[in-house]
């Protein structure tokens, strides 16, 4: 019995992680094209609110998700527009938008606080749901969770195994070279911004219509998740598979915190709740520290064997961003 | 394909980069385009390949008027350009770079098909490239070969090469020339852009010379070298006579210095650099000379051995310690690494001023900047932002920012992208430093510059360093062979793994 | 700048304000609220009485401190998003110092002075953490700073519900208030303390002087515009980045400290009141022109104060002020891009 609860809890990680998967894969696509969308946090809040509000008013879940995707795409488009066409700082616009969308969510969501609304029903996969162990783990969730598996795979396949994906890598890596080969770099940057933004925009409704159904304003517990998504994108080295691993690891650690909390009365709950954030800093430290100059210098002073070992270790951990991430491209 | 350019004009602000250029190139020709830096060759070729748009004028291909708005248009018309710094994707594999050249539609990667085409073409032109290697691990010459294959696969009929021989070995150069001759025989048009006379004379069926944005003349073989020079420069330019100020006081001593980076390892280098002497560092790009120069500045820490500046042991110290000991490093990328765009000239002088108190003294800054501007002949004003200066004036400003006195000056490509007059002026400033006792170490990919200005030369080849060679006893051919890896046996240097 | 250029940029600023108003009206209509009434309430809430006006000044002080500090880090090319945490740590350190000192025999003035210094130190240390992560660990200051913000919030909650909880049971209302002797003196009948206002104005003036007229400011500019070149020109770069973090953190800490000693007189969960993020908006809006910090911060403070009325009178959420501020900065940035595009031709 104990085992089954444990397994069910464990299976919950996959459902709980679905929104973050959408956000992380969406951000990965955008950043692969060379643009940083810093507005993820606010986008998730606004789309969670709007998706819920629309679904509650119309009774249509599909409309709820659609509105989320549209808002996400619109926000990402605005960032692309201001950086590509208006040559403004992506970081500045992204930051303003993340604050603005958050406040919009709280302001416009006020009347919907705590209302009852529709919720995505769970749908067990025929046949697969009965596979021992794996069935419970993966196939007794709802549609968005299954879609999240597909998003990981499609994202990975698209970037690394298709012709447009190869071009996508090219425009993030060296846009001038892609341009020389006849690629319209900025048009593709717009395109991936909008597509990735729509994926990020789906994360909100998945929370408010499934994982954490409803809208509870500032106490929804969604504030901060977008930032987590952004750092997992880095941790994932701009690869949807490694990023998905990051998301599930994060989900697992949160679940572990919940499970362990009653058994560790000495540790106050606040500490466990923010545990992801120091952890986020630590992982970013691990993947970035190999690029620091003092590390290079210190390594040079070490004996050969240690130096080679440590260098290899740091290189394995390191996540190299697309070389032109955040750098605007001008054809002339 | 026959290429015709008619009355091409292009302005960049006040600069008339292309002034009414009309040029006709028959199919199957290797057309040389000769001119010094800044003459407008690259601009003209960028217009033909779609990177720039002419202000006015027209382009005809096989007597049909075409409009080329972007590289995509140029590719569609069969025009491909090989850039001086190959425009490829270093973190991707050779085969993926190749694949990205084709304008095919569709989602699926047909790697097998591409591989077949790649191997067929590589064999046809006698290139040996590993399709699965990463481009970042290739030499510049190999990257050019890859680019040529890619362009051929995409069906170019006009191939433009912009200074393709910079940074490749003598052997690779011969192979490149053979390939170009074959392409011409197949009926393709080749445009070879260069400022090197002898290459153009060796390869091209005809030559057009550009000077200050104008087409000043065309010539067919046999070439009259003296006349070509006159066309290129308009007049005879005299470089300062060779001067040597080498003294016997050592300013930099490297003892068994070993360096390492991702690609290469340079073992146990010994060198004494004396006050007033100039040492040129020659080698193909990425052969280790950059690493070496940066190690002499303390920007890279050696993994073994010692670095002494004057009498001080500065092994493992950072650049600022070297700077205090009288060492300065000038990077090749002037606006990226050398100067601070957004700050004015006078702010730069304040930044390096040695009498920094707490509050800025604007009047002092103004006076200081005016003095230096006059002294170094910089075309600019104290309040000019540095990014508004021309390349030559930026380099002058960088030299003006160096402290006085200086025991060692390390330069990366001191005259890259400058015209001949500017280069000569820069070198006169540098030699004045030597006269005052500063030793100079400089990297250049221009072998003539190295032989002209160095007392001694160090040659680098995939992590190996030659012993110091007397510049006066070296010829361009000999040096060219050495940077390509030929003739190293006589130094008795064992090959490093 | 030519006269027509000044005219153009002024016109675009006005247009930005107009568009921001228009957007806000649309948002209000969308939520079914009467826009004019909402604006009237905001103006009344901020300037309806002398007391309200001084209340605006009360929230002007932390915003002024924080925005001035952020200009230092912005000049060094750093996005110090961790400012929220730095304010919080300033408040925590001040509370900690006052808890230690309230039972001592020190005169209250000295206790307050020490507690204020502790607050500045707390903010500075938290900023140095983000700075060290950036300069020595390669962790982008945005992510490092954000992580530290969440940790600071958790630390506050833990202190309020744990070690520093009120006698009996901890609550969201914060720690036990300090005795009145340890409050910064206020003007009679008001909440405004000159002991906070004057240091705020001084800090603003000093930052202006520092950035525009000193070698330190010039070197900081060089670091912000081209880190690599600044290093090669001999500027000790990481030291300057750390100093920028330290100064900004100290000013943030001072703001947090005043939140405790001049406003709440205790530690509360949301002690930073979002002044950090708001300060980032102010700093972006003034675009390195330090002199503009004061009026813009004042305007933002007025919006904040004015919108407190909204839930009471119109049953609207007070986050409307955040919407107005955000959309204003957004339009200013967008129109600035339009202006540059027009200038390029």
Quick summary of this structure?
Chain A is an all-alpha fold and 332 residues long. Chain A is 71% helix and 0% strand.
List keywords for this structure.
heterotrimer; A: about 325 residues; mainly alpha; 15 helices; about 70% helix; about 0% strand; globular; C: mainly alpha; ABC transporter involved in vitamin B12 uptake, BtuC; 2 domains
- The CATH architecture name of the largest domain in chain C reads Orthogonal Bundle
Average pLDDT score of chain B: 89
Radius of gyration of chain C: 21 Å
| Beta-strand residue fraction of chain B | 15-25%
Q: Could you state the oligomeric state of the chains shown?
A: heterotrimer
H/E element order of chain C: HHHHHHHHHHHHHH
Q: Write the CATH fold name of the largest domain in chain B.
A: Rossmann fold
Q: Which class of the largest domain in chain C in CATH terms?
A: Mainly Alpha
Structure overview:
Helix content of chain A is 71%, strand content 0%. Chain A starts with a helix and ends in a 15-residue tail after the last helix. Chain A is built from 15 helices and no strands. By secondary structure, chain A is mainly α. Chain A has a domain at 2-221. Chain B has helices spanning 41-48, 71-76, 94-99, 111-124, 140-153, 170-185, 197-203, 225-233, 289-296, 319-324, 334-338, 345-352, 362-375, 391-401, 420-435, 447-453, 476-483, and strands at 3-12, 15-25, 30-34, 56-61, 64-66, 79-82, 158-162, 189-194, 206-211, 214-219, 250-260, 265-274, 278-283, 304-309, 312-313, 327-330, 408-412, 439-443, 456-461, 464-465, 469-470. The relative contact order of chain B is 0.11. Chain B is 33% helix and 24% strand. Chain C has helices spanning 3-30, 35-47, 50-75, 83-101, 108-137, 141-161, 194-213, 215-225, 227-232, 237-264, 275-286, 293-307, 309-314, 320-344. Chain C is globular and about 70 Å long. The two termini of chain C are 17 Å apart. The interface between A and C is large, with 46 and 48 residues.
What does the secondary structure layout of this molecule look like, with pairings?
The complex is a heterotrimer of chains A (332), B (497) and C (345).
Chain A: H1 2-32, H2 40-58, H3 61-85, H4 90-109, H5 134-138, H6 143-161, H7 163-173, H8 175-180, H9 185-211, H10 225-235, H11 240-260, H12 269-274, H13 276-288, H14 293-300, H15 304-317
Helix pairs in contact in A: 1-6, 1-9, 1-10, 1-11, 2-3, 2-4, 2-9, 2-10, 3-4, 3-9, 6-7, 10-11, 10-13
Chain B: E1 3-12, E2 15-25, E3 30-34, H1 41-48, E4 56-61, E5 64-66, H2 71-76, E6 79-82, H3 94-99, H4 111-124, H5 140-153, E7 158-162, H6 170-185, E8 189-194, H7 197-203, E9 206-211, E10 214-219, H8 225-233, E11 250-260, E12 265-274, E13 278-283, H9 289-296, E14 304-309, E15 312-313, H10 319-324, E16 327-330, H11 334-338, H12 345-352, H13 362-375, H14 391-401, E17 408-412, H15 420-435, E18 439-443, H16 447-453, E19 456-461, E20 464-465, E21 469-470, H17 476-483
Parallel strand pairs in B: 3-8, 3-9, 6-7, 7-8, 13-18, 13-19, 16-17, 17-18
Antiparallel strand pairs in B: 1-2, 1-4, 4-5, 9-10, 11-12, 11-14, 14-15, 19-20, 19-21
Helix pairs in contact in B: 4-5, 12-13, 14-15
Chain C: H1 3-30, H2 35-47, H3 50-75, H4 83-101, H5 108-137, H6 141-161, H7 194-213, H8 215-225, H9 227-232, H10 237-264, H11 275-286, H12 293-307, H13 309-314, H14 320-344
Helix pairs in contact in C: 1-14, 2-12, 3-7, 3-10, 3-11, 3-12, 4-5, 4-6, 4-10, 5-6, 5-10, 7-8, 7-10, 8-10, 11-12, 11-14, 12-14
């Amino acid at each position: 019995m104990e085992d089954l609860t444990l397994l069910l809890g464990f299976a919950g990680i996959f459902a709980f992680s679905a929104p973050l998967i959408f956000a992380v894969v969406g951000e990965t696509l955008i950043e692969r094209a060379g643009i940083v969308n810093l507005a993820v946090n606010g986008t998730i809040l606004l789309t969670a609110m709007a998706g819920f509000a629309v679904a509650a008013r119309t009774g249509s879940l599909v409309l709820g998700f659609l509105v989320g995707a549209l808002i996400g795409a619109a926000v990402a488009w605005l960032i692309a527009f201001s950086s590509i066409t208006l040559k403004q700082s992506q970081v500045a616009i992204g930051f303003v938008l993340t604050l603005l969308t958050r406040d919009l969510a709280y302001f416009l969501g006020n009347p919907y606080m705590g209302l009852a609304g529709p919720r995505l029903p769970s749908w067990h996969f025929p046949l697969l749901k009965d596979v021992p162990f794996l069935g419970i783990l993966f196939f007794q969730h709802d549609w968005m969770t299954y879609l999240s598996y597909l998003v990981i795979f499609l994202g990975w396949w698209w970037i690394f195994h298709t012709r447009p994906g190869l071009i996508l890598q090219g425009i993030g890596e060296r846009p001038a070279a892609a341009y020389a080969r006849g690629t319209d770099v900025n048009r593709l940057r717009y395109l991936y911004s909008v597509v990735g933004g729509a994926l990020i925009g789906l994360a909100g409704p998945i929370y408010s219509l499934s994982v954490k159904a409803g809208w509870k304003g500032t106490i929804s517990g969604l504030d901060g998740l977008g930032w987590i998504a952004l750092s997992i994108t880095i941790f994932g080295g701009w690869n949807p598979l490694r990023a998905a691993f990051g998301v599930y690891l994060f989900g697992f650690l949160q679940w572990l915190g919940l499970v362990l909390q009653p058994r560790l009365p000495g540790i106050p709950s606040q500490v466990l709740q923010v545990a992801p954030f120091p952890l986020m800093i630590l992982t970013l430290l691990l993947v970035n520290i190999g690029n620091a100059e003092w590390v290079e210098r210190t390594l040079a002073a070490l004996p050969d064997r240690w130096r080679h070992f440590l260098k290899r270790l740091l290189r394995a951990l390191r996540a190299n961003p697309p070389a032109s991430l955040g750098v605007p491209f001008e054809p002339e | 394909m026959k290429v015709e350019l008619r009355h091409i004009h292009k302005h960049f602000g006040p600069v008339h980069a292309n002034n009414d250029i009309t040029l006709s190139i028959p199919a199957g020709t290797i057309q040389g385009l000769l001119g010094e830096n800044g003459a407008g060759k690259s601009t003209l070729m960028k217009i033909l390949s779609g990177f720039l748009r002419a202000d006015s004028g027209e382009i005809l291909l096989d007597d049909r008027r075409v409009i080329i708005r972007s590289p995509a248009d140029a590719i569609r018309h069969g025009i491909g350009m090989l850039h001086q710094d190959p425009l490829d994707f270093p973190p991707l594999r050779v085969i993926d770079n190749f694949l990205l050249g084709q304008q095919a539609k569709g989602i699926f990667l047909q790697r097998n098909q591409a591989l077949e085409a790649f191997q067929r073409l590589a064999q046809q032109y006698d290139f040996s490239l590993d399709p699965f290697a990463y481009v970042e691990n290739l030499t510049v010459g190999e990257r050019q070969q890859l680019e040529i294959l890619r362009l051929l696969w995409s069906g170019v009929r006009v191939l433009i090469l912009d200074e393709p021989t910079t940074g490749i070995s003598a052997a690779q150069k011969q192979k490149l020339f053979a390939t170009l001759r074959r392409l011409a025989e197949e009926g393709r048009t080749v445009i070879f852009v260069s400022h090197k006379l002898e290459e153009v004379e060796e390869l091209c069926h005809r030559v057009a010379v550009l000077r200050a944005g104008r087409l000043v003349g065309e010539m067919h073989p046999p070439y009259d070298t003296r006349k070509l020079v006159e066309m290129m420069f308009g007049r005879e330019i005299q470089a300062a006579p060779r001067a040597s100020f080498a003294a016997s006081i050592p300013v930099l001593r490297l003892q068994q210095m070993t360096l390492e980076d991702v690609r290469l390892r340079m073992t146990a280098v010994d060198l004494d650099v004396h006050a007033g002497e100039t040492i040129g560092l020659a080698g193909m790009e990425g052969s280790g000379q950059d690493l070496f120069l940066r190690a002499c500045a303390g920007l890279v820490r050696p993994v073994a051995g010692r670095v002494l500046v004057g009498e001080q042991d500065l092994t493992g110290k950072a650049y600022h310690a070297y700077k205090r000991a009288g060492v300065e490093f000038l990077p090749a990328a002037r606006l990226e690494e050398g100067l601070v765009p957004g700050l004015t000239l006078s702010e730069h002088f304040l930044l390096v001023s040695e009498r920094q108190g707490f509050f800025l003294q604007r009047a002092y800054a103004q006076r200081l900047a005016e003095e230096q501007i006059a002294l170094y002949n910089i075309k600019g004003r104290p309040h000019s932002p540095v990014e508004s200066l021309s390349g030559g004036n930026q380099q002058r400003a960088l030299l003006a920012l160096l402290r006085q006195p200086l025991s060692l000056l390390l330069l990366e490509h001191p005259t890259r992208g400058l015209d001949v007059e500017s280069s000569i002026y820069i070198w006169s400033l540098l030699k004045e430093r030597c006269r005052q006792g500063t030793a100079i170490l400089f990297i250049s990919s221009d072998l003539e510059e190295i032989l002209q200005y160095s007392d001694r030369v160090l040659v680098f080849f995939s992590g190996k360093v030659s012993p110091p060679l007397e510049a006066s006893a070296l010829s361009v051919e000999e040096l060219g062979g050495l940077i390509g890896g030929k003739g190293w046996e006589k130094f008795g240097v064992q090959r490093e793994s | 700048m030519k006269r027509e250029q000044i005219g153009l940029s002024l016109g675009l600023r006005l247009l930005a304000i107009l568009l921001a108003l228009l957007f806000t009206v649309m948002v209000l209509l969308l939520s079914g609220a009467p826009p004019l009434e909402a604006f009237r309430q905001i103006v009344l809430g901020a300037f309806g009485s002398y007391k309200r006006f001084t209340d605006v000044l009360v929230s002007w002080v932390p915003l002024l401190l924080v925005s001035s500090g952020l200009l230092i880090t912005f000049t060094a090319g750093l996005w110090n998003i961790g400012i929220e945490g730095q304010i919080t740590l300033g408040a925590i350190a001040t509370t900690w110092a006052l808890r230690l000192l309230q039972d001592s025999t020190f005169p209250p003035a000295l206790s307050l002075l020490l507690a204020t210094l502790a607050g500045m130190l707390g903010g500075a240390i938290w900023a140095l953490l983000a700075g060290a992560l950036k300069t020595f660990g390669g962790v982008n200051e945005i992510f490092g700073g954000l992580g530290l913000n969440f940790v600071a919030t958790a630390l506050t909650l833990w202190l309020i519900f744990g070690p520093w909880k009120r006698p009996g049971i901890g609550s969201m209302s914060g720690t036990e208030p300090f005795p009145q002797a340890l409050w910064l003196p206020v003007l009679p009948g008001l909440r405004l303390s000159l002991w906070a206002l004057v240091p705020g104005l001084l800090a603003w003036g000093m930052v202006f002087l520092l950035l525009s007229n000193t070698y330190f400011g010039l070197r900081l500019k060089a670091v912000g515009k081209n880190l690599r070149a600044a290093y090669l020109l001999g500027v000790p770069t990481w030291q300057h980045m750390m100093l920028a973090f330290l100064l900004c953190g100290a000013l943030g800490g001072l703001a947090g400290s005043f939140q405790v000693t001049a406003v709440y007189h205790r530690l509360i969960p949301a002690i930073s009141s979002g002044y950090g993020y708001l300060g980032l908006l102010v700093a972006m809006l003034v675009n390195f022109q330090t002199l503009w910090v004061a009026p813009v911060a004042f305007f933002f403070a007025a919006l904040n104060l004015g919108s407190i009325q909204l839930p009471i009178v119109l049953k609207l959420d007070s986050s409307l002020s955040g919407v107005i501020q955000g959309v204003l900065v957004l339009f200013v940035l967008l129109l600035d891009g339009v202006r540059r595009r027009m200038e390029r031709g």
